[in-house]
Specification:
Blueprint (H helix, E strand, L loop, with lengths): L1 H8 L1 H13 L6 H12 L23
């Protein structure tokens, strides 16, 4: 519960969450997306790239 509360109380986290909701998982301009995220965080925070991977385990399933 503490992690969810942080999203709503921390301004930087809320701004990053709103950026993610706006751009989705496939941002149209990845460079602009990263620059915007870096600007939100500021110079003292680290920025990491997280990729999601979908693995299809069953032969007949072709969606994630």
């Amino acid at each position: 519960m503490g992690q969810v509360q942080t999203i709503f109380t921390d301004a930087k986290t809320q701004d990053l969450y709103n950026l993610f909701k706006k751009e989705g998982q496939q941002p149209s301009d990845e460079v602009h997306y990263r620059e915007t995220a870096a600007r939100i965080l500021g110079d003292l925070e680290h920025l990491f790239r997280i990729e999601t991977v979908c693995a299809v385990l069953l032969k007949d399933q072709n969606t994630c």
